[in-house]
Design brief:
The protein is an alpha/beta fold. It folds into 3 domains: 74 residues, no CATH class; 137 residues, Rossmann fold (3-Layer(aba) Sandwich); 149 residues, Rossmann fold, CATH 3.40.50. 42% of the residues lie in helices and 9% in strands. The chain has 17 helices and 10 strands. The strands form 3 sheets. The protein has a 4-stranded mixed β-sheet. A 4-stranded parallel β-sheet has the order 7-6-8-9, with helices on both faces. It has a two-stranded antiparallel ribbon with strand order 2-10. α15 links the parallel β8 and β9. α12 runs parallel beside α13. The radius of gyration is 20 Å and the shape is globular.
């Protein structure tokens, strides 16, 4: 599964088409998060189409993009909601507490974690920062930069990983409607790709894969790099027995899907499930999974009127953990490091939670290796960071502008 971003034109991310939208309200009525009664959903869509702010979307939409699949007219309502976020932030800026979750602001939730990484992981990040020219490389994504230990295994040791948090794909800008910052991210990533000069790039993050192939080209990314996701690569190595299953899992697992997988098609969302089957795991689905999944929890902070409020993020994460527990699966698995970290933050509050794994860790176990298992420690660091850097500012009335992203690092 690969694409060249210069050739991609996924209609899933085309602008909202008001000529197609009939204000039927199904997008908001069947939304896994809002679930508005149909009369309210119709009224909300009519208001948004007429240029008004609406009563619900700015407060509750987590931009999970399920509405684009629900819409019977393929009008792409998700892009309308993102545009409304953009308009709101242009008018009102951001509450002061939100700066801690802005990807290029310093300090932020990732820089604080990276500051406290153990020496072995800091060394890995130093190695990844190599900007010398290469033909092929693996892009870690900023979430993986906060959990580099996940790549410490025998089957990834030959990967040429390049990048760092300063080369964030801009996923959080996209989902919070900061389209100006997304364009700035694209400009920086153009420089990044030009510097490396590679012809092929594999991405260790579903969000990053989606952004590079389907979103960023609409906001200024210009590149002829062939882009692939690590999940098909991982499945292929297992099927070819380049990763040998020495110790089948023999456990049940519920999967926290990435919100971005739904934009990549049914085949993509099944790959983590096929991997689990190959390594001896039994999948127990949450009520909200696959294309109708709940966001891991960070999405609870995306609505424009919440702007990364820590209580909103915590409540959204708790909702997922409750659903996961109801499956009675032995463990929770994420194939996005960001999802792993968000769920692990809640696990730091609720130590009776099920064990939470990244898919790479479960493959390690099946291959007879012992993963490092540092996710709860990261969760505690994230939780502490929110308490120290956000909570004191919750009652502040200050509104702030998110700093621009210079093209040069």
């Amino acid at each position: 599964m690969s694409t060249r971003n210069s050739d991609n034109d996924n209609p899933f991310f085309a602008p909202f088409d008001p000529s197609r939208c009939v204000s039927c309200g199904h997008c908001l009525n069947e939304c896994p998060v809002m679930k508005l009664p149909l009369p309210l959903a119709k009224r909300e869509m009519k208001a948004l189409k007429s240029g008004k702010k609406g009563s619900f979307v700015l407060s509750w939409c987590e931009t999970c993009m399920a509405c684009n699949l629900i819409c019977p007219e393929s009008a792409n309502p998700a892009m309308l909601f993102i545009e409304k976020f953009y308009e709101f932030h242009k008018e009102r800026a951001f509450p002061e507490w939100s700066l801690y979750f802005q990807p290029h602001n310093t300090p932020n939730f990732r820089t604080k974690v990276i500051e406290k990484l153990p020496t072995d992981e800091k060394t890995m990040l130093d190695d990844w920062s190599d900007m010398s020219a290469c033909d092929e490389f693996t892009y870690p994504g900023c979430n993986m930069c906060a959990t580099p230990y996940l790549t410490r295994n025998n089957f990834m040791e030959d990967l040429n990983i390049r990048g760092g948090i300063e080369y964030c794909c801009g996923e959080m800008y996209f989902r919070t409607g900061q389209l100006d910052k997304l364009r700035q991210s694209a400009a920086r990533l153009n420089r990044f790709l030009e510097t490396l000069g590679a012809s092929k790039m594999m991405v260790l993050c579903t969000a990053g894969y989606n952004l590079f192939t389907n979103v960023l080209p609409r906001y200024g990314l210009v590149s002829d790099v062939e882009i692939t996701s690590y999940l098909p690569w991982l499945l292929a190595k297992i099927e070819a027995e380049e990763i040998k299953v020495k110790r089948p899992l023999e456990m049940s697992v519920t999967i926290q899907d990435s919100c971005h997988s739904k934009a990549l098609g049914d085949e993509y969302v099944e790959i983590p499930r096929r991997i689990l089957e190959k390594i001896g795991g039994e999948v127990k689905e949450m009520k909200h999974s696959k294309e109708m999944n709940y966001c891991c929890g960070i999405g609870g902070g995306f609505p424009a009127r919440k702007s990364f409020h820590p209580l909103a993020i915590t409540a959204s994460t708790g909702r997922v953990m409750l659903e996961a527990n109801l499956t009675q699966a032995d463990a929770i698995m994420a194939y996005c490091s960001g999802c792993l970290q968000t769920l692990s933050t809640m696990a730091a509050i609720l130590p009776v939670s099920k064990p939470i794994y990244h898919i790479l860790e479960l493959v390690q176990i099946a291959a007879g290796e012992k993963p490092l298992r540092r996710n709860i420690e990261r969760g505690k660091q994230l939780l502490k960071g929110m308490i120290v850097n956000q909570v004191p500012k919750i009652f502040s009335l200050n509104r702030v502008s998110v700093p621009d992203i210079p093209e040069e690092v």
